[in-house]
Every structure is written in C-alpha cells, then in structure tokens.
Amino acid sequence: MTTLILVRHGETVDNANRIMQGQTQGQLNETGMRQAEEVADRLAGEHIDAVVSSDLKRSYDTACIIANRHRLDVSTTELLRERDWGGFTGRYIPDLKDEKWPDDIESLDHLLCRAKNFLDFVCSEYPDCRVVAVGHGIINKAVQAIYHKVAMNEVRPMANCEIRILEL
After folding, report:
1. Burial level of 111, CB count in 10 A (0-12/13-18/19+)?
2. What are residue 50's DSSP bridge partners?
3. In tens digits, what is the pLDDT along the chain, a chain of 168 residues?
4. Residues 81, 142 contacting (CB under 8 angstroms)
5. Beta bridge partners of 167
6. Contact in structure between 32 and 2 (CB atoms under 8 Å)
7. CA-CA distance, 94 to 17, in Å (whole number)?
C-alpha cells in the first residue's frame, strides 16, 4: 500500500492579498515559509520515501523545505498544478463573486481527470512507499474527491500547509 501525505503549499503573497493565483508561480511569504518549516518539523520523525510537488514555485519551495529534512530530492509534475482560472487569474477574489465564469477556466472534468492521473502516477511510480505530495487548494480537493469517490463540494478545503493522509 502506498501512503500519500497530501500537503497544500504555504501561504503566498497573493493568498494574503486574496488574489486568484491559478497557474502563476506564486511566492511564499514569511508566514508561508514558517508554515512549511512547521510541516517539516511535524514530518521529521516520519519515514518518507519520496517528495513530489506541483511544478509551480509556491508548491516546489514548500516541498523543498520538507524534503531537506529527509535529505530527499523533489520531483515535480504538472498533474499537481492548481486549476487554471483563465480570465480570473490575477484578480481580487472578492470581486469575482457575481461574475460570469470566463470560457477559458479549466473544466471540472479536466481537473478531476488530472487528479485521477496523479493518483495513478503515485501508485505506479511509488508502490508501497510513503510519499509527500505538495499541491494546491483546488487540485488537492480534486485528488481527495477522486480518492473518496465524492463530489468536490463534499471535500473540506485545505488550509495552507495542512496535511491529509490517503492510503492508496
């Protein structure tokens, strides 16, 4: 059995300013770096075989802080990228409440397909391993929705640097 230790990246400048980041790189702020250090401390005594991350900077930087405690490298995958928010990217989130969704937002079906492909990837690449995977709020919800076989709105959102463990 593969154990997936799913983590959301640390807080970023845009998270703190309530900006829709989507697939932009993002930059951890001081709080985010401290959160990543706290996760690294929490997992320091755990056996970890591998660390996988979204290829976006905010997740990769979080993953590197965790991986350094275990003297592991970080592998990246586009499968863990955040949802592509299209025309909403870079905008102030409270302003989007009543707006019509643009046509260029990544579809829910595509997002869920990426989540399924990620779970398949972890199981095939890391059989019987303990894997830390650092992703983003929405893709992590999609991963959990696939795993639990529920709708995404039934998955509780993850806070920055929150951990959820899935036995695959």
Report:
1. buried
2. 131
3. 999 999 999 999 999 999 999 999 999 999 999 999 999 999 999 999 999 999 999 999 999 999 999 999 999 999 999 999 999 999 999 999 999 999 999 999 999 999 999 999 999 999 999 999 999 999 999 999 999 999 999 999 999 999 999 999
4. no
5. 3
6. no
7. 11
Output the CA–CA distances (angstroms, integers) from residue 34 to 38, 51, 92, 161, in the order listed: 6, 19, 25, 10
The DSSP output letter for 5 is E
- Contact between 148 and 69 under an 8 Å Cβ cutoff? The reply is no
Residues annotated as part of the active site: 9, 82
Nearest alpha carbon to residue 28 among 62, 69, 56: 62
pTM above 0.90, yes or no: yes
Provide the 10 A C-beta neighbour count for residue 18.
11
- State the DSSP string of 124-152: HHSTT-EEEEEE-HHHHHHHHHHHHTS-G
- C-alpha span between 112 and 45 (Å, rounded): 33
